[in-house]
Write a structure and sequence with these properties.
heterodimer; A: Pdz3 Domain; Pdz3 Domain; 3 domains; 5-stranded antiparallel beta sheet; 4-stranded antiparallel beta sheet; globular; B: 65 residues; alpha/beta; 3-stranded parallel beta sheet; 3 strands
Chain lengths: 328, 65
């Protein structure tokens, strides 16, 4: 990602692949590659082909589409990747001899973008989570082989209230022509929370309009699938894994019970709290349902992001249960 | 399909280092089939060619394993 113009190429940097269709004058015609935990199912060859066909159609009438296409770029907080603060970017920029990859990954950019948000006084993890809202958050399931064809409408959702139905084909959102699921996500990212979005869609060969009324809190998406979550605030440097079958058997802990084994304690806050390697975390703030270590990490990011925040871990160590308080 | 209705292919990735990057990139991703059609890691060159040929670009960002 070194040297990439972020005003030109903004996308969900937690993805390992992204496609842009770009006119020779730099106008972005559209994007391809879906976000979210279900992204692998949503990226299909058929869907990519349809997106490319639609991009070419837009290119053929570029002059008349310029106003709508303008929304496909938004100013980036920084213009170029090398202006972001991140240890990986610094290593690449300085030619660190210990860095054999010489590589700035897309998720490194996302981590640095998150850090920009985290430096704000009014930081909240929802600022990160709201950047790329998914169609399902407004109640839409989109056919991945088409990219804009509605395959499902969740009852009592904003999409249902707007009158959208299975078989409708999305054409524009707030004036932006849509070629793919990624385009829908990008266009939704510009809609306020709470807010309203104007949709143009096709039903039985006729174009129709609708308004999505989006209630407060509609926008933050689940962060769990994102690699960049591991570097969000607080950055505790605590390495935990779910106990394996052998460990569970020796501890007498059931398969479905929370048992996160501490594999490494690196950060000052977790060291100061007295956490040790091989401790088994049985609860955090009384929660015993965070069986997945990624969900445990995310719980801390979402609930203890403020400086000076603290949380309590219930720990099993050498057959004894103890409580440790971590101050971030 | 007319020449206006095709896409130029440009591939940009994490290996953004100067000097020999394009070759390093091609070696790492080991493209067997489409290699001759791609412009590797040089968006400005791709854009210049797009202007000359009046074709839109298919720009692929991908993570190199």
């Amino acid at each position: 990602m070194r040297g990439v113009d972020l005003d030109q190429f903004q996308f969900d940097f937690d993805l390992s692949m992204m496609i842009f269709f770009v006119a020779p004058d730099g106008t972005v015609l559209g994007r391809y590659c879906a976000s979210g935990a279900d992204r692998h199912r949503q990226n299909t060859i058929a869907g990519l082909r349809r997106a490319a066909e639609r991009a070419l159609e837009l290119f053929a009438r570029l002059d008349e589409e310029r106003a709508g296409l303008a929304g496909k770029k938004r100013p980036s907080p920084v213009a170029r990747v090398e202006e972001l603060e991140h240890d990986r970017i610094r290593k690449v920029e300085t030619g660190d001899p210990g860095d054999d990859q010489n590589c700035v990954h897309c998720h490194n950019v996302q981590e640095a973008m998150n850090a920009l948000l985290e430096r704000r006084r009014d930081y909240h993890p929802d600022l990160v989570a709201a950047k790329f809202p998914l169609p399902e958050q407004v109640g839409l399931e989109i056919d991945p082989d088409d990219g804009v064809l509605i395959a499902g409408v969740r009852a009592d959702s904003a999409a249902a209230r707007a009158g959208l139905r299975v078989g409708d084909r999305l054409l524009r959102l707030d004036g932006q022509p849509l070629i793919s699921i990624a385009d829908v996500t990008w266009a939704l990212g510009a809609v306020p929370d709470p807010g309203r979005a104007v949709l143009l869609y096709e039903r039985e060969g006729k174009e129709r309009g609708a308004e999505l009324e989006l209630a407060a809190g509609w926008k933050p998406a689940d962060l769990l699938w994102r690699v960049s979550v591991n570097r969000m605030r607080p950055f505790l440097q605590l390495w935990v894994e779910g106990a394996d079958a052998e460990e569970r058997a020796s501890l007498g802990i059931g398969d479905q019970d929370m048992a996160l084994v501490v594999r490494g304690v690196f950060g000052p806050a977790v060291r100061a709290a007295g956490i040790r390697k091989d401790d088994v975390i049985r609860a955090i703030d009384g929660r015993r349902d965070l069986v997945d270590p990624r969900r445990f990490t995310l719980f801390i990011r979402l609930n203890h992001f403020q400086r000076g925040a603290s949380f309590v871990l219930e720990i099993l160590r050498a057959g004894k249960t103890l409580e440790l308080t971590v101050k971030t | 399909m007319s020449s206006r209705m095709t896409l130029l292919l440009a591939l940009i990735c994490a290996l953004g280092a100067a000097g020999g990057c394009a070759k390093k990139l091609r070696d790492r991703i080991d493209d067997q089939v489409a290699a001759e059609r791609w412009i590797y890691d040089d968006y400005e060159a791709a854009l210049a060619r797009a202007r000359t040929e009046r074709k839109p670009l298919f720009v692929l960002f991908r993570c190199v394993p």
